[in-house]
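Lab notebook, bench 4. We co-purified these components, and the gel suggests they stay together. Before we commit to crystallization screens, I want a quick structural picture of the whole thing.
Request: model the full complex, all chains together.
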Amino acid sequence: MSFINFARKEIAFKIVYYGPALCGKTTNLEQIHAAIVPESRGEMTVLSTQADRTLFFDFLPLKSEIIKGFTSKFQLYTVPGQTIYRETRKLVLRNVDGVVFVADSQWEKMEENAESFQDLIDNLAEQSVSIDKIPYMLQFNKRDLSNVAPAHYMDFMLNQRETRVPTMESVACNCLGVFETLNIMAKMILAAFMKENNMAMADVPDDVCL
Ligand SMILES: Nc1nc2c(ncn2[C@@H]2O[C@H](COP(=O)(O)OP(=O)(O)O)[C@@H](O)[C@H]2O)c(=O)[nH]1
Ligand SMILES: [Mg+2]
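Here is the predicted assembly.
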């Protein structure tokens, strides 16, 4: 659910990068933060509760007036992947507009991917949100490693719900697929917002973010 500030004519969209521990969520955010000019982005902030770390920053898209009359901005969050931080993940998912599920492509991580995806579904359901009703996509990360599962296998594992969602292969540490992912996600969120508010989609640029 996007946050609209009518007084300031601002809309904020919240994107959460979700996935198992060490899959590359933080790396995605670091790459994006590093590539956006300082004038268009906020500080990278660590929201810490005791031992876990949640990263956050916001930024303006390339064309900030995508929604007529409003400045839109995107807020990016990562969650700590370890099982024990379930409560933090639930908190971070509150009022989310879109989820990038980052899966680790290594064969030995397939079970963790599936568990984390189920954890996402459950945590959203606890907030009465069905994953099938919000924009989300899959990023298959670490494609540079030699022990990776084929993308079609990962698709078979993780992309079996009502509607098939977009996927993107990536090597986040080399910034491959990182902005492609973000642009797809941003466009999905904007499309959902415009549909909800009966607005025309015509003037959404191809590359929203970079
Ligand atoms: N080989 C490889 N390593 C990656 C890739 N993306 C991230 N990493 C590394 O994986 C480790 C965990 O990444 P991090 O972003 O902290 O994972 P997080 O726990 O999901 O936030 C770090 O050492 C990253 O440099 C990738 O595409 N390929
Ligand atoms: Mg992290």
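Residues 28 and 101 are 11 Å apart (CA to CA). Worth comparing against the SEC data before the next meeting. The two ends are 24 Å apart (CA to CA).
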